[in-house]
Specification:
With 133 residues, this protein is mainly alpha-helical. 59% of the residues lie in helices and 11% in strands. It is built from two helices and three strands; from the N terminus they run βββαα. The structure holds zinc ion. The site of zinc ion has 8 residues, from loops.
């Protein structure tokens, strides 16, 4: 697997690591680096404006990704609730009971993810506020 660029936006440094590398640290400030892929050009350190634009684009696309993920999850939760209600409104049989049980399990997992997601969202909002973003 080819190496990807991992950057520290504060120090304007980049290191190359595998895209699945864990805990990639900035060689200067030791804070966590962000992976910007292999296609994005890393600006020269002196190009402050380019770094700012790169950072804005990076966080914008991450926010959009997370937002899209939440939207898909909310839609699926809604569909599951409707399907469960539809199954439960019909006369009971083994097949429907089993199907409703499976759907309820998926629903619980999605709701747990949604809860975890909003917790981590609060954390990153707090972090972004501290960084003055
Ligand atoms: Zn750094």
């Amino acid at each position: 697997m080819s190496n990807y660029a991992w950057v520290c936006f504060s120090c304007r440094t980049a290191v190359r690591r595998s895209p699945v590398a864990k805990d990639v640290r900035c060689p200067e400030c030791a804070s966590q680096c962000e992976c910007i892929g292999y296609k994005t050009l890393v600006p020269a350190r002196t190009k402050i404006r380019d770094w700012r634009m790169l950072s804005e684009a990076f966080y914008r696309s991450r926010r959009n990704y997370v937002f899209g993920q939440q939207k898909r999850r909310v839609r699926r939760i809604h569909d599951l609730e409707q399907e469960i209600a539809r199954l439960e409104a019909m006369p009971l049989n083994d097949g429907r009971t089993l199907a409703a049980k499976r759907l309820r399990k998926e629903l619980e997992e999605l709701r747990a993810q949604q809860q975890a997601g909003s917790d981590s969202q609060r954390r990153s909002a707090l972090l972004a506020a501290q960084r003055g973003r």
